[in-house]
């Protein structure tokens, strides 16, 4: 049972609100749907990859 608890995903408890044009949003959501993924999943993936690429020795680049 302890293994299951350790593998449990972290609960998402925060929001990021951004403003984009309706056309840009619609195109992004449609592309995600076509690729069988969600817009939220792709934004989170981008954020993880971007942060990892800009992080050096545990600190963000400036």
Describe the structure.
There is one protein chain. The chain is 55% helix and 6% strand. The protein is mainly alpha-helical and 62 residues long. It has a domain at 21-53. A two-stranded antiparallel sheet has the order 1-2.
Descriptors:
62 residues, mainly alpha, two-stranded antiparallel sheet, 2 strands
Please write the string of helix (H) and strand (E) elements. Answer: HHHEE
**Oligomeric category:** single chain
Structural class: mainly alpha
Count of extended strands: 2
Cα distance, first to last residue?
Answer: 42 Å
Basic shape: extended
Which parts are unreliable, with pLDDT below 50 for 5 consecutive residues or more?
A: none
- How many helices does DSSP assign? 3
Strand order in space, largest sheet:
1-2
How much of the sequence is in beta strands? 5-15%
Rg on CA atoms, Å: 16 Å
Helix proportion of residues, in percent?
40-55%
Largest sheet features = 2 strands, antiparallel
- Output mean pLDDT: 87
Brief account:
About 55% of the residues lie in helices and about 5% in strands. The protein is mainly α. The model has no long low-confidence stretch (mean pLDDT about 85).
Topology at a glance:
Blueprint: H1 2-7, H2 22-34, H3 39-53, E1 55-56, E2 59-60
Antiparallel strand pairs: 1-2
């Amino acid at each position: 049972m302890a293994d299951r608890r350790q593998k449990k995903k972290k609960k998402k408890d925060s929001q990021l609100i951004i403003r984009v044009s309706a056309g840009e949003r619609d195109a992004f959501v449609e592309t995600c749907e076509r690729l069988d993924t969600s817009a939220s999943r792709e934004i989170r993936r981008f954020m993880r990859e971007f942060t990892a690429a800009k992080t050096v020795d545990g600190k963000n680049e400036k």
